[in-house]
Design brief:
3 strands; alpha+beta; 41% helix; GIY-YIG endonuclease; 3 helices; single chain; 3-stranded antiparallel sheet; 83 residues
């Protein structure tokens, strides 16, 4: 089973959310339906970046690497580089 690290951008305020999942479409729907506490008030969300990994542990590690940057510019550069 593949796992993904994903970055969402809020259409309402431009903020970003980084997470990991095995089903991106379902997870995006959950964010947009308000079923995720942190992202509830900032919907709608748009998927702007994803990376695929062979295991959940690899995806989780990459998610922590991205979040550790604590830098909006890092996310912007990551998204640009992947296009």
């Amino acid at each position: 089973m593949a796992y993904f690290v994903y970055i969402l951008q809020s259409a309402s305020d431009g903020s970003y959310y980084v997470g990991h999942t095995s089903n991106i479409e379902d997870r995006l729907n959950r964010h947009n339906q308000g079923r995720s506490l942190y992202t509830r008030g900032k919907a709608p969300w748009k998927l702007i970046h994803r990376e695929e990994f062979a295991s959940r542990s690899e995806a989780s590690k990459r998610e922590r690497q991205i979040k550790a940057q604590k830098d909006r510019q890092y996310i912007i550069q990551l998204v640009r580089a992947s296009r």
